[in-house]
Amino acid sequence: MVLFSSANGYDGSIMGGLLALPFWNQFMHHPSGAYLGWISAIYWVGNFIGFPIAAWVANRYGRRAGLYLGFPFLLLGVVMQTAARNEAMFTYSRLFIGFASAWFGNSAPLLINEIAHPKQRSIANAMFMVGWYFGGTLCGWVVFACRDIASDWCWRIPVLIQITLPLMALPGVIMAPESPRWLFSVGRVEEATEILSIHHAGGDRNDPLVIRQAHEIQTAISMEKESRTNASYADMFKTPGNRHRLFISVTLGVFSQWAGNGIVSYYLPLILNSIGVTSTTSQTLISACLNVWNLLWAIAAATSVDRLGRRFLFLTSASIMLVSFIVITGLSATFAQTGAAAVGLAVIPVLFIFFAGYDIAITPFLTAYPCEIWSFTQRSRGLTVTWCSSVVALFLNTFANPLALEAIQWRYYIVYIVMLALFAVTVYFAYPETRGFSLEQMAVIFDGDDADVILTAEPREDIENPVVSGDKDTWIK
Question: Which of 115, 128, 189, 445 has its CA 20 to 30 A from that of 18?
Answer without folding.
Answer: 128
